[in-house]
Amino acid sequence: MKVAFFDTKPYDKQSFEKAAEQHGIRIKYFETKLNEDTVDLAAGADAVCVFVNDTVNAAVIDRLCEMGVRVVALRCAGFNNVDMKYAFGKIHVLRVPAYSPYAVAEHTMALLLASVRRIHKAYIRTRDYNFSLAGMTGFDLHGKTVGVIGTGRIGRVFIGICRGFGMKVLAYDKYPAADLADGKNIRYASLDELLAESDIISLHCPLTEDTYHIIGADALEKCKRGVVLLNTSRGALVDAEALLAAIKSRKVGAACLDVYEEESELFFEDFSGHILDDDTLARLISMPNVIVSSHQAFLTEEALANIAETTVENITGFFATNQCPNELCYRGGSAEDCKCGKCF
Ligand code: NAI
Q1: How far apart are CA 312 and CA 323, in angstroms?
Q2: CATH topology of 2-99+301-337 equal to that of 101-292?
Q3: Is the pLDDT score of 340 beyond 80?
Q4: From residue 166, how far is each of 141, 144, 200, 314, 343 by CA, in Å?
Q5: Which fold has domain 2-99+301-337?
């Protein structure tokens, strides 16, 4: 069985070579992303393996089908880069629903702590033997209210970490979990209440039509002055221009972003020495109260091993049995149409 692997990074190759050898599949690695211009590289393959910034739109799906590729294996959980409505009935889309919620949740807390305790500044200062503390005052997380939007696998782990810090939790989810709220320290609320009451807001919902720009100008207006915004989910959950305006007006006290709306042409690549064309990102990065990491929340040894193992099992399992427990079945674009219960 042949797999064309797009957007390859050295760490992918390491983890996938091991898993592929164990399962007897041949992987051809391409550094380029999958899109309409590169799709022909998949000629002769049975499956393509793609990541978060590969483009699987209608044109790409049509060409893959013409070339006899039967499977798109996502080596990630989110699938907003796949035109699922168009894919339905044409090509099988498999994903890795969970590889390490701990990796993402822990990175979210790492960003929060770095931001509120100014670790990013301390690191640079002390390397220059500057031991002054001016401007380094942070605040305790204990007793603060964190608003968690999306209480699935990652949101729940993040809530557990926050509870360890003695924080109160307000949660918002389109499909609240019956067993999460304790009525005291963890409570479901409306989105408006969460926005108004939270000192820190963390996004852990998927990017869908419903959640596109869920944090935009209106939502930011409803927030507490000085709110800290964390986004380790998907860039387009936040309207980056509105966020920038809210930082300039001092409404937002700090932002930690592992994802960015227009990241696909930038993140995972080295642009040092280049002039960045994206003024919004450049301005955000220039802010003293913004920390940007390059979609690295998932990047732990454990997560990489799980991703490789599950992706390879998804592909081999599908070709052996014509089905896969991790196949997405997004028929019409709504939860009611999903027959597997996993797409939403
Ligand atoms: P999950 O599917 O377990 O949980 C998502 C939760 O969001 C569910 O409880 C769902 O009901 C809720 N939700 C759906 N629509 C909503 C809406 N309109 N409003 C509020 N809540 C809504 O997913 P998981 O594993 O927790 O991942 C969450 C997201 O994290 C993924 O969709 C992905 O975008 C992102 N992610 C980011 C990574 C990174 O490296 N930065 C790595 C892995 C995932």
Answers
A1: 14
A2: yes
A3: no
A4: 7, 8, 14, 40, 33
A5: Rossmann fold (3.40.50)
Choosing from 261, 263, 309, 313, which is the catalytic residue? 263
Q: Where are the domains of the chain?
A: 2-99+301-337, 101-292
pTM of this prediction exceeds 0.70: yes
Respond yes or no: is residue 263 known to be catalytic: yes
Does residue 302 carry a catalytic annotation? no
pLDDT, tens only, 155-209: 999 999 999 999 999 999 999 999 999 989 999 999 999 999 999 999 999 999 9
For residue 315, report the distance from its CA to the centre of ligand 1, in Å.
23
User: Ligand 1: which residue has its CA nearest to atom 9?
Assistant: 152
Query: Is 75 part of the annotated catalytic residue set?
Result: no
CATH code for residues 101-292: 3.40.50.720
Pocket of ligand 1 (CB under 6 A): 77-78, 98, 101, 104, 149-155, 172-175, 204-208, 210-211, 232-234, 258-259, 295, 297-298
